[in-house]
Structure to design on (300 residues):
């Protein structure tokens, strides 16, 4: 709706993981480098964790794009609600094993192993990516570990990448999953963007969407947007989109502090956190104002 008003060709703040808009922040670029290095070194298990909205799925899709040509063969399993047999069947379908739905688990594992051997003899390297891995049932996580046992004398037949929320780390710390945890040779923890990276992120997405002018946010609007979003890309997208929509509605060429404030009030998850922080700040200010008086009161 506001694209033409702000000189844009596309919507800059969609919530779908569009790799065209990937912002190579130091953290995200380092995570991608770790993934590519670990896979290049043929390490068996790699793990990337981060809070909701930090761009794990986008990073996963970007990695898939990087591994699109030989020698790589990739399988992407985005559905976390998978029992072991369902996981085997989805993996078999990704590897183009025929009639996978009609085969029992043991026979299916044997077929997967044979397929992986064919790839290995042809010099191909198979990578399986699991998104939302923190939600996988324990039995499925254990089955994934058993899949990693498929190997020749010289190399693993497949490599596995787990993308998940921090709860995945908590689950892997349990005794019943310690064998899986010990096999993870590389892991990376994504963190939110800082204030400078948040501004660069906004500018990057607007430029990709066709913006050729400066950043259409006032300094006060940028400060408030960063504070309210906490540097989480998904929340930045939501607030920036609503703020630009509000500015467009007023016919403004720039997003102002009040536009971001309206976007915060219209976004429940941000509103609750922002008001809570505001209450903490007000409480701290009252304590500081009262401190001289409290110190002046003589002890009884």
């Amino acid at each position: 709706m506001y694209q033409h008003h702000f000189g844009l060709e596309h919507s800059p703040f969609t919530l779908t993981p569009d790799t065209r808009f990937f912002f190579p922040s130091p953290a995200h670029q380092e995570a991608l480098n770790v993934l590519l290095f670990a896979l290049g070194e043929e390490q068996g298990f790699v793990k990337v964790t981060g809070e909701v909205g930090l761009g794990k799925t986008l990073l996963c899709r970007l990695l898939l794009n990087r591994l699109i040509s030989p020698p790589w063969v990739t399988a992407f399993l985005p559905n976390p609600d998978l029992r072991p047999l369902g996981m085997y069947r989805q993996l078999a379908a990704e590897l183009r094993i025929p009639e996978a739905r009609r085969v029992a688990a043991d026979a299916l594992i044997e077929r997967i192993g044979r397929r992986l051997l064919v790839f290995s003899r042809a010099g191909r390297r198979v990578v399986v990516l699991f998104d939302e891995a923190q939600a996988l049932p324990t039995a499925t996580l254990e089955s994934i570990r058993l899949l990693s046992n498929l190997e020749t004398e010289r190399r693993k037949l497949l490599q596995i990448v787990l993308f998940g929320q921090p709860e995945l780390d908590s689950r892997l710390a349990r005794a019943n999953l310690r064998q899986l945890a010990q096999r993870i040779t590389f892991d990376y923890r994504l963190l939110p963007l800082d204030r400078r990276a948040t501004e660069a992120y906004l500018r990057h997405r607007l430029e990709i969407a066709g913006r050729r002018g400066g950043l259409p946010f006032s300094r006060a609007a940028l400060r408030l947007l960063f504070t309210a979003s906490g540097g989480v890309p998904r929340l930045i997208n939501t607030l920036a989109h609503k703020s630009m929509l509000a500015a467009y509605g007023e016919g403004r060429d720039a997003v102002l502090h009040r536009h971001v404030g309206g976007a915060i009030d219209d976004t429940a998850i941000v509103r609750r956190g922002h008001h809570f922080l505001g209450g903490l700040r007000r409480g701290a200010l009252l304590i500081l104002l009262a401190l001289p008086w409290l110190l002046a009161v003589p002890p009884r």
